[in-house]
Design a protein that fits this description.
2 domains
Length: about 200
């Protein structure tokens, strides 16, 4: 078997040298043009399911019955289906952050947070209009002074609990609370304005 670069033919044997030259040229050309087959890539689009829909300024969570108008100058972040955090809203200056959580169990106190402690829980009888649910209002004070205070509002729905949290810096707490409670009064859960009677 002749290999390119081997001296198998004598210089006087013109036919042998020419054949050998042509054979080597073909092999080199084939080596230049050959490429390994590219791996096949699955380009099937990934289906992403969100925790709700947004249309005409309204967010709706069909799974857990919550509907609310989103203020036009607020940013919305819709969570993923199957997660507890369903929605996050905040204005341009981010002075207040409103998180909407749903838990598939009846909570008698707010779900814990790592950065603060629910040291005040008001278990008074807060009823929504046309609804006998007892609401819970609580405050989560931060472990560090630069963290946000969290005000929590709980309402039971369909054997689960909506936990709406208002996050604000201590210096913005009162103004943020007033701003967020205006938003809370527009929330419907299964057709009922749960926090319309907030004072």
């Amino acid at each position: 078997m002749l290999l390119c670069g081997e001296e198998r033919c004598t210089g006087r044997n013109w036919d042998c040298n020419m054949f050998f030259f042509l054979a080597c040229s073909i092999v080199k050309e084939q080596n230049r043009s050959w490429r390994p087959e590219a791996p096949k890539i699955d380009i099937t689009p990934i289906q992403i399911d969100f925790a709700g829909t947004y249309k005409d300024g309204i967010f709706q969570d069909d799974d857990y019955g919550l509907t609310l108008p989103v203020p036009p100058d607020w940013t919305k972040q819709i969570g993923l289906a199957g997660e507890n955090k369903r929605l996050v809203l905040f204005p341009e200056d981010q002075s207040v952050l409103v998180e909407f959580w749903y838990f598939n169990s009846i909570l008698l106190e707010p779900a814990p947070r790592e950065e603060c402690e629910w040291s005040f829980v008001d278990r008074g009888l807060y009823h929504s209009l046309n609804n006998e649910n007892i609401h819970l209002v609580a405050t989560c004070f931060p472990h560090q002074s630069d963290n946000r205070i969290v005000q929590g509002y709980l309402s039971h729905y369909n054997k689960g609990t909506w936990q709406v949290e208002i996050h604000s810096k201590p210096e913005h707490y009162q103004a943020a609370l007033e701003q967020a409670e205006i938003l809370l009064k527009t929330i419907e859960i299964n057709g009922v304005y749960e926090w319309q009677d907030l004072e």
